[in-house]
Structures are given as C-alpha cells and as structure tokens.
Automatic annotation (TrEMBL):
Transmembrane segments: none annotated. Residues 36-175 form the SCP domain. This is SCP domain-containing protein. It holds the Pfam family CAP. InterPro entries: CAP_dom, CAP_sf, CRISP-related.
Amino acid sequence: MGFPSKLWPGVAAAILVICAAGIAPITALPIPAAARLEREFTVAHNQARKAAGVKPLHWNEEFAEYAESFATHMKIGEPGTCEFGKQAPPTSYGINAVVTNLATDVSGVVQWWTQGSRFYDGKTNTCASDFKNSCRAYLQVVWGASETLGCGSVPCGEDGRLFLCLYSPPGNTKGGYPFYPWH
C-alpha cells in the first residue's frame, strides 16, 4: 500500500499504525450539501406522513433542481433583506415555501409547515379561515396522493434562506381528501 508520505507524512504514518494494529481506518467525509438536503427533507416529510398514516414520499432530483430555480425566481428584496413575494409561475406541482431569517434546519422548516395541522378539521375537510395558508402547507406535506418530493434552498439577505418544496401529484385539490385520496 503506497501513501504519498511526502505530502502527508503524519497521516501516512498514522494510517500505517492503525492498519498494523488491525483497526480499519474510518474516513469521515462531509456529506455534500445537496445530499444532506435530500436526506433531511425526505426524513422530515416522511416522519410527518407516517404520523398522518400516509405512504412516504420519494425524492426526485429533477424536482429539487427545479425547486431551487423556482425559489431563486420567487426571491425578492434589496440586498440585506430576505423576502418572498413574487407571483409564482404556473406549475402543475404542489408547492410549500417559507422564508426565514432565523438559523433554521430543514426539520424545523417541515415542522413549521406541519404546525398547521391544528387548523385542519378532518370532519368537515376544511381549514380554519384565518389560518388557511398554514393549514394548506400542512395538508401538502401529508397529502396521501402525493408521491414525489423535490426541495431547494437559496440564500437571501445576510443570513436568511428561502426553502421551497415541490410535490407531485399536487395536494390541496378541490374536493380532495388529504388522507384518503380514493374519495
């Protein structure tokens, strides 16, 4: 086994000692940002969906790329600000988006969307009128007929981020039921 000892003399010696002792070296490589985003969004969504009793979503890389492009288009504001407000271009996907200037991880974003569950009345299949946006964000996360997910995140402002997820088939369809797509 040849190590570039001129480049990394300490590392090569340490690996040789570890291998001589019969211990397999552990390589801790950082997870690329895109792979981490995929894993975190998929896990967070599927935890919420499991709690609602619906099947898990599957990640789609093309959706993720489109979501990031979509988020870039939706971002507005002067440098140093983080605003969301441009009219969304027409799309056949379901959309959830949020802007935050707080240090928020992906699971916190999905948790923020799922807090809207308290504004959904399953008996009447309606959202409380004052909280429709929050309720609809929740319903999109747990919409039983949705199968595919792709999310993107773009920086805005000094420390803000815009998070956007696309879902297919889309949720919140008129007359549809979130947990029973066969109705």
